[in-house]
């Protein structure tokens, strides 16, 4: 089924008449009279008042962002394509609630007024950019900085805002040789501990994933982007004021604030205490804050996002919160604005697609990586089904050693297969597979949406196969996006193994008239198996003692040194690397006691090994560690982490930028043992 709606026609920003609120703001920063510039365009104002106004005020600043939707089951975010982003000049009144003893404050809006100043549309990746007049931004910026605390209070906290609070130094004054183990540039463990204390559970999940996947030498953009994500993805409830009756949780309205502060008026007597809140925000620490403070006529530039989610031709709101999305307190507006849409939004799992020139039919790409054609043999072995560039082996086994070609990396996750399917006399196509050289079976039940702007309308269509796996061939002249996607293959729904895949073409009776050469894919969605066992002995004792598996404790009656022997094991279908290490609670004192085994290297307080060939998938190693006699009592830990060399070439990491010569670590398993030492 195809649905459509009319695309809005938007005037060029310099030809759009000023709203009343824009005229008031431009007047405030330029001293022009409101009556003289109201309903005028920026173009007209620039011509008429070129010698009376700072010309830079009439320039535009580009503010960009992305509309995304979070999958509640996996926590992953997906782009919201072809939605409408409305940009507003907004003035609002707030009650600021600053509960005593909390690091946060909350805002309760009332009496808000807004005027639309721009309209833009998201692209296939949910991205958008809006041109906002410079004076609008300057007005908001000046208004906040002319008032005590407001640059702080009107800032939505991000994850990277917590990093300056940490006590671990980010930069060392000088290097030492030989070097001591140093903390990571971003102290992930300490950051996670602080996030845990403030209840930022979504941010903890992001940090966990980021700390597991980052590698030395990777571009920092992905890490910086993650750290700039909101600390709290949604508004969270504040503590109930002690001065209010407990009944507020049972009713929709808040009692009059007249009893709480002398500033309360009748217009706030029915404030929705739990429903209307915005926050939390950073608490101002420059002055003492009363529990309740009225703030009137707060200017901001806000967003609303709409999308036709029910295919009725009308757009429904999918994001309406809007307040303080952009960090106007900063002169650098390059950080993208992330707008998280409501659960009703229509999101797409397919964002990036390859550019293809079709001269023949066939499967050409897996994600953004070639698998057949002129260059396909450089990236993919169409017989074994392995990718040839990601996660190459290191013959020395040292994690920092030199890699050798070729790689043998299997695929995991949802695999987008792209190619050309416009065969003469064919109206339908389907993809079939043979699993581990078995009989041929058609792919069925896999559907996806395609989008296009056509004659001023946004059209969407669901690509659905019939019961035999036949898809209609969409004409290339119709400009659907994605236009060359043959199959959105969720490999996690299939057993791991070797797949041979071919494409068949059918006429109007769905009779096969042609089939393409088969191409193999090796699928592996498994995770490594890891194990740890720790033994110990005190001082000069030569006998190793096995620790209790539950809540292990070691007593040092004479403050002796503690020696540990760690037995670490790993097995995987397609191992990439494995690391075994020890960590402390911050006081230090733990060191590696023996040399690294053959084909292992020392890595911090631990050892690391990289697969030397395709058969190197099982290992057992027994490193020893020493805890110094003068080490502080506390919790000491031992860890093992192993990675598979499987990957997904959809373009969500640095593979495309590095021509697939990179070391993705997308699938892993880790375990640890924590030991209390007294």
Structural description of this entry:
The protein is mainly β. 11% of the residues lie in helices and 33% in strands. The strands form seven sheets. Strands 14, 15, 18, 20, 21 and 22 form a six-stranded antiparallel β-sheet that branches. Strands 23, 24, 26, 28, 31 and 32 form a six-stranded antiparallel β-sheet that branches. Strands 25-34-33-27-30-29 form a six-stranded mixed β-sheet, with no helix packed on it. α1 crosses α4 and α6 runs antiparallel to α7. The chain is flat. The chain starts with a strand and ends with a strand.
Topology:
Elements: E1 2-3, H1 20-30, H2 34-37, H3 42-48, E2 60-70, E3 77-79, E4 84-97, E5 104-121, E6 127-133, H4 134-145, H5 150-153, H6 188-198, H7 201-213, H8 221-227, E7 278-282, E8 292-307, E9 316-319, E10 337-340, E11 362-366, E12 369-370, H9 376-379, E13 414-420, E14 428-435, E15 440-442, E16 448-454, E17 457-463, E18 471-472, E19 485-490, E20 497-506, E21 512-515, E22 519-523, E23 529-538, E24 545-546, E25 553-554, E26 562-571, E27 575-583, E28 590-592, E29 601-602, E30 606-610, E31 618-621, E32 624-627, E33 634-644, E34 668-677
Tags for this model:
678 residues, mainly beta, 4 domains, 34 strands, disordered N terminus
């Amino acid at each position: 089924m195809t649905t459509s709606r009319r695309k809005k026609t938007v005037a060029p920003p310099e030809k759009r008449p000023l709203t009343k609120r824009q005229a008031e703001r431009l007047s405030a920063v330029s001293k022009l009279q409101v009556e003289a510039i109201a309903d005028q365009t920026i173009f007209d104002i620039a011509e008429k008042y070129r010698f009376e106004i700072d010309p830079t005020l009439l320039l535009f600043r580009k503010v960009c962002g992305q509309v995304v939707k979070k999958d509640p089951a996996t926590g992953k975010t997906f782009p919201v394509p072809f939605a409408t982003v409305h940009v507003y000049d907004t003035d609002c009144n707030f009650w600021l609630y600053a509960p005593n003893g909390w690091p946060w404050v909350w805002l309760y809006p009332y009496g808000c007024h807004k005027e639309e100043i721009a309209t833009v549309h998201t692209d296939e990746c949910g991205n958008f950019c809006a041109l906002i007049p410079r004076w609008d931004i300057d007005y908001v910026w000046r208004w906040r900085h002319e008032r005590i605390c407001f640059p702080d209070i009107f800032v939505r906290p991000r994850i990277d805002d917590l990093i300056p609070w940490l006590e671990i130094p980010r930069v060392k004054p000088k290097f030492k040789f030989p070097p001591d183990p140093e903390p990571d540039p971003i102290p992930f463990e300490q950051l996670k501990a602080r996030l845990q204390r403030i209840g930022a559970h979504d941010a903890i999940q992001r940090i966990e994933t980021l700390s597991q996947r980052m590698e030395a030498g990777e571009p920092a953009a992905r890490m910086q982007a993650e750290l700039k994500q909101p600390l709290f993805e949604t508004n969270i409830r504040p503590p109930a004021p002690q001065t209010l009756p407990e009944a507020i949780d049972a009713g929709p309205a808040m009692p009059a604030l007249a009893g709480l502060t002398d500033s309360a008026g009748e217009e706030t007597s029915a404030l929705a205490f739990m429903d209307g809140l915005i926050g939390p925000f950073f608490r101002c620490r420059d002055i003492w804050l009363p529990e309740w403070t009225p703030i009137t006529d707060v200017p901001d530039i806000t967003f609303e996002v709409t999308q036709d989610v029910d295919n009725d031709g009308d757009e429904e709101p999918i994001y309406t919160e809007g307040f303080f999305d952009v960090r106007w307190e900063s002169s650098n507006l390059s950080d993208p604005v992330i707008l998280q849409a409501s659960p009703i939004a229509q999101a797409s799992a397919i964002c990036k697609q390859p550019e293809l020139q079709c001269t023949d039919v066939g499967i050409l790409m897996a994600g953004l990586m070639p698998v057949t054609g002129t260059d396909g043999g450089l990236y993919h072995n169409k017989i074994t089904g392995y990718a040839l560039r990601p996660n190459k082996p290191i013959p020395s086994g040292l994690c920092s050693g030199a890699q050798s070609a070729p790689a043998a990396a299997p695929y995991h996750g949802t695999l987008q297969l792209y190619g050309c399917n416009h065969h003469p006399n064919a109206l339908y196509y389907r993809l079939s597979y043979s699993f581990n050289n078995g009989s041929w079976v058609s792919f069925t039940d896999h559907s996806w949406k395609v989008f296009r702007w056509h004659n001023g309308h946004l059209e969407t269509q669901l690509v659905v196969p019939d019961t035999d796996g036949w898809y209609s061939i969409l004409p290339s002249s119709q400009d659907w996006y994605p236009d060359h996607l043959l199959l959105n293959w969720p490999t996690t729904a299939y057993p791991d193994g070797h797949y041979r895949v071919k494409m068949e073409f059918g006429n109007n009776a769905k009779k096969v008239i042609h089939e393409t050469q088969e191409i193999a894919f090796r699928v592996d969605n498994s995770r490594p198996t890891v194990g740890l066992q720790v033994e110990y002995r005190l001082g000069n004792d030569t006998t190793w003692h096995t620790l209790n598996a539950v809540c292990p404790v070691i007593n040092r009656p004479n403050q002796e040194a503690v020696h540990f022997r760690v037995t670490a094991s790993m097995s995987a279908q397609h191992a990439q690397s494995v690391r075994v290490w020890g960590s402390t609670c911050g006081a230090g004192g733990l060191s590696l006691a023996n040399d690294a085994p053959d084909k292992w290297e020392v890595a911090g307080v631990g050892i690391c090994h990289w697969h030397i060939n395709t058969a190197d998938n099982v290992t057992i190693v027994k490193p020893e560690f020493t805890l110094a006699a003068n080490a502080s009592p506390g919790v000491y830990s031992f860890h093992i982490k192993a990675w598979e060399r499987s990957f997904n070439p959809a373009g969500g990491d640095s593979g495309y930028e590095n021509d697939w010569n990179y070391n993705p670590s997308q699938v892993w398993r880790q375990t640890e043992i924590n030991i209390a030492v007294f």
